Amino acid sequence: MRKRFFKVLVSVSVCAAMAVTSLAGCGNSKSEAEESKKTSADTKVSDIKVGFCMKTQDSPYFVSLVESVKELTKAEGWDCTVLDAGGDSTKEAENMETLITQGVDLIFLDSVDPDACVPSIDAAAEADIPVINLDSGVSECNQCTTIYSDNKQNGRLVGLAYGEFVEKDTEIVAVLLSALKGNIACLERRLGLYCGIIEARSGCTEEEAWEKAQKMEDDLVASGKARNEEANFTLRGQGWGAGTREEGLVAAEDLITANKDLTCVLGENDQMLFGAMDALENAGIEGVDLVAAADGAKEAYDLIKEGKYFGTGENSPFKVAEKGMEVAKEILIDGKDWTSYDDVILTEAVAVTIDNVDEHYDFGF
C-alpha cells in the first residue's frame, strides 16, 4: 500500500456552494485486478455496506452531515452504519475497529483528532478498506482522500463582496471573532476575509492581497491590532469564541465595550456572529455589519434575507457528503483505484449574500 500524506487540515465547524458534477468513472471493461475486488460494477448494490465514523453530533452541522450521508447511501440502496465517537478519540478507534472487523466496503470518517485517527486509517488500508475523510483532515497515513469546503476562497469571496459593498472612502473598523487557536481552517478563513477586503478596496492583485493579509495577521498576533492603509481597513482586536454562540457573545462583549465606533464584526463562522449580534443588541448598538468567512446556517440565511447579516461563505454538509458519495461510487461501483485520488478535494467556494441567498438556502443546515 502506498504512503499518502499531507499537512493537517481541520475544519470548524466548516463549511461551499456548487452544482456538483460527477467525477470521471472507469469504463465497462474490467481488468483482472478489478474482477478480484470484493465490490465492482457487477456487485449487487444491495450487498454494499459502508460505515460512517462520526466524531460528534453536538452541532447542527454535524447532525446535517450524518443525515446527508444516511440519505445518500439509502438512495443508492447501500447499508450504512453510523457510529458516533462523542468527541472521544478512544471511542473513535473502537468504532473504526468495529467497522473493519465487520468487513465493510468503505468507511467515511470525520475524525476527532487528526493524529489519533491515523493508526485506525492505516489498519483499514491494510484490510483494503478505503477511508474517505469528510469535513476534517488527517495527518500522514494511508487513505483515499479528504473532502471539505475551500476555507481560504470562501473567506476571500465574502471579503471581496463586503469590500465592494462598503464605500471606499468609508473606513472599515472591525473586530474579529476567532474560534480555535492554532487551527488551520480558522486561520485560512480569517486570512481569506482580510485578502478579499484588501483586494476589493485597494485594487491590488489577489497574490498581493494574500501577502498583505498575512501582514495583517502577523501584526494582529504581535500587537492585537492591524491596519491596511490602502484598503482603509482597521482591525481593532481579536476575541476567541470557540466557534459557539455562547462564547462568541462573551468575546464580543469585551471587544464592543472597548470599541464603540465599530462598523463591522468579522467572524470565522456564523455561530460566533450570532453571539456578537446578541452582544450588540444588549449594548443597544445598531448599524454594525456582521460578516462570516464561512458556515451556511439557515439562521444566517434568514438574517441575510432580512438585511440583518451581510453574508457568509457556504460550507454545506450536504455538498461535502454528496462529493464523498461520488468518490465512493467510483470506487465501489466503477472499480476505480482508491489510492489514485488527490489528497484533498474541495467543494466550490461561494459567498452567500442577499444577491444569491435564495439560490443556496436549501443547502444550508
Describe the 3D structure:
There is one protein chain. The chain is built from twelve helices and 13 strands. It is an alpha/beta fold. The strands form three sheets. Strands 2-1-3-4-5-12 form a six-stranded parallel β-sheet, sandwiched between helices. It has a five-stranded mixed β-sheet with strand order 7-8-6-9-10, sandwiched between helices. Strands 11-13 form a two-stranded antiparallel sheet. It starts with 31 loop residues before the first helix and ends in a 5-residue tail after the last helix. The N terminus is likely disordered.
Strand order of the largest sheet: 2-1-3-4-5-12
Distance between the termini: 37 Å
The low-confidence parts are 1-43
Mean pLDDT: 88
Structural class by SSE content: alpha/beta
3D shape: elongated
What is the H/E string?
HEHEHEHEEHEHHEEHEHEHEHEEH
Give helix % range.
40-55%
Q: What's the total count of β strands?
A: 13
Strand fraction: 15-25%
What Rg, in angstroms, do the CA atoms define?
22 Å
Count helical runs: 12
What composes the largest sheet? 6 strands, parallel
